[in-house]
From TrEMBL:
Keywords: Cell membrane, Glycoprotein, Ion transport, Membrane, Sodium, Sodium transport, Symport, Transmembrane, Transmembrane helix, Transport. GO terms for biological process: propanoate transmembrane transport. It comes from the Eukaryota. This is Sodium-coupled monocarboxylate transporter 1. Its main location: membrane. Belongs to the sodium:solute symporter (SSF) (TC 2.A.21) family. It catalyses: butanoate(out) + 2 Na(+)(out) = butanoate(in) + 2 Na(+)(in); acetate(out) + 2 Na(+)(out) = acetate(in) + 2 Na(+)(in); 4-methyl-2-oxopentanoate(out) + 2 Na(+)(out) = 4-methyl-2-oxopentanoate(in) + 2 Na(+)(in); acetoacetate(out) + 2 Na(+)(out) = acetoacetate(in) + 2 Na(+)(in). One of its GO terms (cellular component) is extracellular exosome. Pfam families: SSF (PF00474). It is a multi-pass membrane protein. It comes from Cyprinus carpio. GO terms for molecular function: organic acid:sodium symporter activity.
Length: 610
C-alpha cells in the first residue's frame, strides 16, 4: 500500500522501453540538426545557431537549462521537508527577468559577442577576461557534475543499475548531440525535454490526487503539517529561507545566472532580433513559474502520502534526493511506462543542462583562449576544435560527478556554488556597465576580494552546516509505517549527513554566525564586497582620471525599457542592400547610435560596392 513504508517495485520492461525511447529521441534531435546543417560548419553557426533563433524555442531552452534533474528531484524534496517557502522564488524569477532583459540584453546584443567574458577585456583588460572565463569554467564543470549525479542517484535507487555506468551513459548522450549538432541541437532538444519534465510532474500530482481523494485533501494535509507557511518576514540573515533571503538574495543569485552566465547569454544572443531576445526572457519567466509550481505541488503530494511514514526516517532511502524516485515507484509502478516517464523527465532535465553547459564551455574556451592564441585558425579548423572540446568537457563533467556525491543536499549545494562564484563576477559586471570611473586595477582587486569572501563563507558552511534551528526542517512521522525497513542496496550517504549524524565535533566560533549565513546571501555578499572594494581601489589608483572609455560599453537611457528600439545586424544589412542611401538613417533612434559606431567599417565596405 502506498505510504506504508518498505521496499517498492523496480523498473518493468515497459519502463525501460519508455525511458530509452525518450532519451534516444532526444539524441536523435541532435543528429537531425547535424545532418540538416552539415553545410553550415562555421563557428558562429555551431555556437550561436547562426543568430537566427526565435523567442519561443529559446525561452523553453532557457527554462530547461536550469530546470535540471536537480530541480526535478530536489525541489519536491524541498517542499516535503521544509515547506513551500521555496515558492517565493516566483518573485525572484520576475526580478531576474527584468534585470537581464532590460540591462544586459541590450549590452550584449549591441556588442555581438560570442563569449560573455569578451566584455571584460573590452571594458577592463585581458587578465580580467581570463580570470572571469576560468571562474566560469570551474563553476560550470562542478555544477554540471552535480546535475549528472542527481538523476543517476535516482535511477540507481529505483532500478538498481550501476551508478557510475549511468553517469557515463548520461555524459555520452550529451556529448553526441553537442558535438554533432551545436547550439541548435541543444535548443531544440531542450524544447522536447521541457515537455517531458512537466509531464513527469503532472503524472505524479494526478496519481497522488486520485490516491488521496483529490487536491483538496493534499492541500489540507499540507496545511495541518505546517507545509503551507510560505511567508516568513524574519529579517535574520542566518534563516535558511525567508521572504527576504529569497526575494533579495535569490533575485540577485538568479540575476547573476541569467545575466552573465555563458550558458544563458549564449541562448538569447542567438535570437535574430533584440525583441526576440527580450521576449525569450519574459516567456522563460512564465516557464519558471509553471515549473517551480508543479515541483512544489509534487512535494506536497509526497507529504500527503508519507505524512505518517517518512521514507527517509524509516531508512527506506539513503538521501533526501531519493525521496521522489521512491514515491514514483510506490504510486506509479502499477502503470507500466509511467515510472519510465518520470525517470526520463529527470534525465531530460539533466541532458538539457549538461548539453547547455558543454556547449557554453566550448564557446568560452574557443573565444577566450584559442582564438586569441591562434588567430590564424580557419573556420574548418575551429569547427573540428569545437567538436573535440565538446568531447573533452563531457568527460570532465562526468568526472566532476564524483565530487558532487560529497555535497549533501544537492539543490542547496548547486545554488550555493552559483552564489559563491557568480556573485563576485556579477559585481564586476555591475562595476563595468554603471561606473565609468572604475579601472582595471579596481576591478581586479574587487573581484579577488569578493571571491575570497564568498569561498570562505561557502566552504565554511559546507564543513560546519547550520544547526537545525536555522534550517527549520519540519517534523515528520513514522508512526504509520507497517515495519521498519533498511534498504541494504542504498549505500550512498551525503557528506553533510555524515557530519550531522556522527559524534558532534567542536564547532568554531564562526560556525553559528558567519558560516550559518543563508546560502542565498552568498551572492549579495560577493556583489557588495566586489563593488565596494572596486570603487575604493579605483578612486585611490586614479580611475576617474583615466581616458574616456567607449560609450557602447555602458548602459544608457535608450537601453532601458526599450523593447524594440534597435534593429538586428541582418535587418540593417538588408536595408543597405536594398538602398545604400539607407546608411544615412542609421544614426536615428530606430537603429541606435552605438550600432553605427560598432559597425561603421562594415557599412563603409557595403557602400563601396555601389
Amino acid at each position: 500500500m502506498p505510504g506504508s513504508g518498505g521496499p517498492v517495485a523496480t523498473f518493468s520492461v515497459w519502463d525501460y522501453v519508455v525511458f530509452a525511447g525518450l532519451i534516444l529521441f532526444a539524441a536523435g534531435i541532435g543528429l537531425f540538426q547535424a545532418i540538416r546543417g552539415r553545410k553550415e560548419t562555421n563557428s558562429d553557426e555551431f555556437l550561436l545557431g547562426g543568430r537566427q533563433m526565435t523567442a519561443v524555442p529559446v525561452a523553453l531552452s532557457l527554462t530547461a537549462s536550469f530546470m535540471s534533474g536537480i530541480t526535478v528531484i530536489g525541489t519536491p524534496a524541498e517542499a516535503y521537508m521544509y515547506g513551500t517557502a521555496f515558492w517565493l522564488f516566483v518573485f525572484s524569477y520576475a526580478i531576474m527577468s527584468i534585470i537581464s532583459a532590460e540591462i544586459f540584453v541590450p549590452l550584449f546584443y549591441r556588442l555581438r559577442i560570442t563569449s560573455t567574458y569578451e566584455y571584460l577585456e573590452m571594458r577592463f583588460n585581458k587578465l580580467l577576461r581570463v580570470i572571469g572565463t576560468s571562474m566560469y569554467i570551474a563553476q560550470t564543470a562542478l555544477y554540471t557534475g552535480m546535475v549528472i549525479y542527481a538523476p543517476a542517484l535516482a535511477l540507481n535507487q529505483i532500478t538498481g543499475l550501476d551508478l557510475w555506468g549511468v553517469l557515463v551513459a548520461t555524459g555520452a548522450v550529451c556529448i553526441i548531440y553537442c558535438t554533432l549538432g551545436g547550439l541548435k541541437a541543444v535548443i531544440w532538444t531542450d524544447v522536447f525535454q521541457m515537455i517531458i519534465m512537466l509531464s513527469g510532474f503532472v503524472a505524479i500530482i494526478a496519481r497522488g490526487a486520485v490516491l488521496q481523494g483529490g487536491l483538496g485533501k493534499i492541500w489540507n494535509d499540507s496545511y495541518h503539517g505546517g507545509r503551507l507557511e510560505t511567508f516568513s518576514f524574519d529579517p535574520d540573515p542566518l534563516r535558511r529561507h525567508s521572504f527576504w533571503t529569497i526575494v533579495v538574495g535569490g533575485s540577485l543569485m538568479w540575476a547573476s545566472m541569467y545575466s552573465i552566465n555563458q550558458s544563458q547569454v549564449q541562448r538569447y544572443i542567438s535570437c535574430k532580433t533584440i525583441t526576440h531576445a527580450k521576449l525569450s526572457l519574459y516567456l522563460n519567466m512564465v516557464g519558471l513559474w509553471v515549473t517551480v509550481s508543479l515541483a512544489m505541488l509534487s512535494g506536497l503530494t509526497m507529504y500527503s502520502i508519507y505524512k505518517d511514514c517518512d521514507p527517509f526516517t524509516n531508512k527506506d532511502v539513503g538521501a533526501s534526493d531519493q525521496l521522489l524516485p521512491y514515491l514514483v515507484m510506490d504510486i506509479l509502478a502499477e502503470f507500466p511506462g509511467l515510472p519510465g516517464l518520470f525517470v526520463a523527465a529527470a534525465y531530460s532535465g539533466t541532458l538539457s543542462t549538461v548539453s547547455s553547459s558543454i556547449n557554453a564551455l566550448v564557446a568560452v574556451t574557443v573565444e577566450d583562449f584559442m582564438k586569441p592564441a591562434w588567430p590564424w585558425l580557419t573556420e574548418r579548423q575551429l569547427s573540428w576544435i569545437n567538436m573535440g572540446m565538446s568531447v573533452f568537457y563531457g568527460a570532465v563533467c562526468i568526472g566532476m560527478a564524483g565530487v558532487a556525491s560529497l555535497m549533501g543536499n544537492i539543490l542547496q549545494a548547486a545554488l550555493s556554488i552559483f552564489g559563491m562564484i557568480s556573485g563576485p563576477l556579477f559585481g564586476l559586471y555591475m562595476l563595468g556597465i554603471f561606473f565609468r570611473c572604475v579601472n582595471s586595477t579596481g576591478g581586479l582587486v574587487g573581484l579577488i576580494s569578493g571571491l575570497t569572501i564568498t569561498l570562505w563563507v561557502g566552504i565554511g558552511a559546507q564543513v560546519y552546516p547550520p544547526l537545525p534551528e536555522k534550517t527549520l526542517r519540519l517534523p515528520l512521522s513514522v508512526e504509520g509505517c507497517v515495519a521498519p525497513y533498511m534498504n541494504e542496496t542504498t549505500t550512498i550517504t551525503p557528506f553533510s549527513t555524515v557530519l550531522q549524524t556522527t559524534t558532534p565535533q567542536p564547532r568554531p566560533a564562526l560556525a553559528d554566525s558567519w558560516y550559518s549565513l543563508s546560502y542565498l546571501y552568498f551572492c549579495p555578499v560577493g556583489i557588495i564586497v566586489t563593488m565596494v572594494t572596486g570603487l575604493i581601489v579605483s578612486a585611490i589608483s586614479g580611475g576617474c582620471k583615466q581616458e574616456k572609455a567607449r560609450p557602447e560599453l555602458f548602459i544608457g537611457k535608450s537601453d532601458l525599457i526599450c523593447f524594440g528600439c534597435r534593429r538586428s545586424d541582418s535587418e540593417v544589412s538588408d536595408l543597405i542592400e536594398k538602398d545604400p542611401k539607407n546608411i544615412q538613417g542609421l544614426e536615428s533612434p530606430v537603429f541606435g547610435d552605438n550600432e553605427i559606431a560598432l559597425k561603421e567599417k562594415d557599412y563603409k565596405e557595403k557602400i563601396t560596392k555601389f
